């Protein structure tokens, strides 16, 4: 697999192979004492004028202990393959998770990233509910200025906190925080649903999650 947690970099980090971006194997998340585990890395591409541009690399982190407890509770101990139902459990759970985005395309602004996220989440919400729920889209990025420049290497972290709170950090600052089960589900559905941004990253996440069963 091209995009997985198997690409070893420095000790304590893994590399997204198509971009060379390094992701720490554990990351802390606000309000949660236990660091989250890196389960998969991938690449978000976007087609612009017929060109497939690399927009950002991403790492998907999770509280594996909590998710594994939920998987065992629902499916028992004999889990040896990742099913659609397991991914649905992860998407619907309120266990802490995070996707760290690292910009790889130079010249990005916050407005362009917001547009890309809005399109992805809007489509994800529609898949889940059949409706657009446009009022939720504005809550993800809060009041961050659209003209804010995001040079290569800039980091955005979007986390699901307990109680279905979705928090967005841009360059280390919290810019959006909203309680919405639907928004949480829609966001992680983009990475772990039936039509993920990076299939290899999704598969890696699933294999890593059940590796201790």
UniProtKB/TrEMBL annotation:
One GO term (biological process): fatty acid metabolic process
Limits of the Chalcone isomerase domain: 20-203
GO cellular component: chloroplast stroma
Signal sequence interval, chain numbering: none
Gene3D superfamilies the record matches: 1.10.890.20, 3.50.70.10
Top-level taxon: Eukaryota
SUPFAM superfamilies registered for this protein in UniProt: Chalcone isomerase (SSF54626)
Pfam assignment, any one: Chalcone_3
Family annotation (InterPro entries): Chalcone_isomerase, Chalcone_isomerase_3-sand, Chalcone_isomerase_bundle_sf, Chalcone_isomerase_sf, FAP1
GO molecular function: fatty acid binding; intramolecular lyase activity
Family: Belongs to the chalcone isomerase family.
The name this protein goes by in its record: Chalcone isomerase domain-containing protein
Organism: Amborella trichopoda
Origin organism lineage: Eukaryota, Viridiplantae, Streptophyta, Embryophyta, Tracheophyta
